[in-house]
Write a structure and sequence with these properties.
The protein contains 3 helices and 14 strands. By secondary structure, it is an alpha+beta fold. Strands 1, 2, 3, 4, 5, 6, 7, 8, 9, 10, 11, 12, 13 and 14 form a 14-stranded antiparallel β-sheet that branches.
C-alpha cells in the first residue's frame, strides 16, 4: 500500500512537471472516442509489430499512417522495451525512471493521443504509482495531465491550435512497486481542425482591423 509520506513527493514531482504550463491553447480529452470525434482525419500506431519482452535500441523511427516520428527515452537509458502481449503489444521503457518521448514529426501535428499507464518488470500492466503526460507545442505552451493508479483504459488526447513538438510519458512511484511508463495506440493528426482554422481566421481578421485603424 502507498503511504501518505510516499504520495507527497509524487505529488510534488507532478506539480514540478506542470509548473509554468498553459492549457489555454491546448484542449484535453480523457477518452479516445471524444478525442477521435474531434478530429477530421487521423492515423494510429498500434505498436503491435513490437515483440513483448524484446529490447529495442532507441531512438526508434516509426509512423502513424503517413506521419513519421521518433520514439526515444531519456535521461537514463536509450533502450525501449516491448510490453503487453502478442495480441496487443505496448511500447515501454527499459528504465522505469525515464520519460518516453515522441517528437520529430515529419509534418505539422496538431493532435496527439494515446492510452498511457504503467507496466511491471515482466511487461504486464501495473496500476501502482502515477502516470503523467506532458505535451508541448511550437508556442512553448504545455499541458500536463496525470492519473493515479491508471489502468489500460486510461486515455489522454491533446488538440492544439499550433503544431505540437513533443508528447512525453512518465510514471512516478514510491520506493516499492516500481512502474515503467507504457503507451498503446498513439494517434496523431496532421491537419488543423475546423475550430483551429476558425481561430486563425479570427486572428487574421483582428490583425487586419488593427492595421486599418492605424492607417486612419
Amino acid at each position: 500500500m502507498t503511504s501518505a509520506s510516499t504520495l507527497r513527493p509524487l505529488v510534488a514531482v507532478v506539480a514540478l512537471l506542470a509548473a509554468g504550463s498553459s492549457q489555454a491553447a491546448i484542449q484535453v480529452f480523457t477518452d479516445e472516442s471524444s478525442f477521435l470525434a474531434a478530429l477530421s482525419s487521423y492515423a494510429t500506431d498500434t505498436f503491435d509489430d513490437l515483440m513483448p519482452g524484446q529490447a529495442y535500441d532507441g531512438p526508434l523511427s516509426r509512423s502513424a499512417g503517413s506521419i513519421g516520428y521518433s520514439a526515444w527515452t531519456t535521461p537514463n537509458s536509450p533502450t525501449l522495451y516491448g510490453a503487453g502481449s502478442s495480441s496487443d503489444a505496448w511500447l515501454s521503457s527499459n528504465n522505469a525512471a525515464d520519460f518516453i518521448v515522441f517528437d520529430g514529426f515529419s509534418m505539422p501535428v496538431y493532435a496527439a493521443g494515446a492510452y498511457v499507464f504503467g507496466s511491471d518488470l515482466f511487461g504486464e500492466h501495473s496500476s501502482t504509482g502515477i502516470t503523467a503526460v506532458r505535451v508541448t507545442n511550437e508556442a512553448a505552451e504545455q499541458s500536463v495531465k496525470f492519473k493515479f493508479r491508471a489502468d489500460t483504459t486510461n486515455y489522454f488526447g491533446f488538440l492544439s491550435d499550433t503544431p505540437l513538438v513533443s508528447f512525453e510519458v512518465k510514471t512516478l512511484y514510491g520506493q516499492r512497486n516500481v512502474t515503467w511508463p507504457t503507451v498503446d495506440d498513439l494517434t496523431l493528426a496532421a491537419v488543423p481542425e475546423p475550430g483551429t482554422y476558425a481561430m486563425l481566421l479570427a486572428g487574421l481578421a483582428a490583425v487586419g482591423f488593427v492595421v486599418r485603424r492605424r492607417k486612419r
